[in-house]
Amino acid sequence: METRNTPTITVQSLINAPTKKVWEFWTEPQHITQWTFASDDWHAPYAENDLRIDGKFKTTMAARDGSVSFDFEGIYTDVQTYKLIEYVLGDGRKVSISFESEDNVTKVTETFDPEMENSIELQQSGWQAILDNFKKYTEAAV
Fold first, then answer.
1. How many Å separate Cα 111 from the centre of its chain?
2. Residue 94 and residue 56: Cα distance in Å, rounded?
3. C-alpha to C-alpha distance for 116 and 34, rounded to whole angstroms
4. What is the distance between the terminal CA atoms of the chain, rounded to a whole angstrom?
5. What is the DSSP string of the chain?
6. 41, 76, 42, 34: which is closest to 58 by C-alpha?
7. Each residue's pLDDT tens digit in the chain (142 positions)?
8. What CA–CA distance (Å, rounded) separates 94 from 88?
9. What residue ranges define each of the domains in the chain, with the CATH number in brackets?
10. Would the pTM count as exceeding 0.90?
11. What is the largest CA-CA distance in the chain?
């Protein structure tokens, strides 16, 4: 799939948790399945993650009513523990996630290449909704 000739899209959130916890919840499959969906009528029934350069990840996102599902997957190109994750999706789009910490608050910033099927606004709102779900899940967990 070709990408648009447009700038990247960025979403971000301040998570009220130390970076070690944020990193763990972002990267471990048992946590990934708890937050990787944009709305309550979706869920993530499966996740696998080989967090290393050239490692692969896959998360299945599915409608709770069983009507549709898809795999979100890619290959890591850079992993700097507690700081940065970069990967390439199956369609060639690049994604970068940075983690910045100050006083037990971690800023997570995701920057990604847009795809051509959906509007920039829809993509940004969808990825932001997933990031907001991550924030809610991470902050609620003890």
1. 10
2. 14
3. 28
4. 41
5. -PPPSS--EEEEEEESS-HHHHHHHHH-HHHHHHH--SSTTEEEEEEEE--STT-EEEEEEEETTSS-EEEEEEEEEEEETTTEEEEEETTS-EEEEEEEEETTEEEEEEEE---SSS-HHHHHHHHHHHHHHHHHHHHH--
6. 76
7. 444 466 899 999 999 999 999 999 999 999 999 999 999 999 999 999 999 999 999 999 999 999 999 999 999 999 999 999 999 999 999 999 999 999 999 999 999 999 999 999 999 999 999 999 999 999 999 7
8. 5
9. 9-140 (3.30.530.20)
10. yes
11. 43
Tell me how far apart the alpha carbons of residues 48 and 79 are, in angstroms, rounded to a whole number.
16
Structure tokens at 57: 């990840």
Q: CA nearest 129: which of 56, 61, 73?
A: 61
Both tokens of residue 10?
């960025």
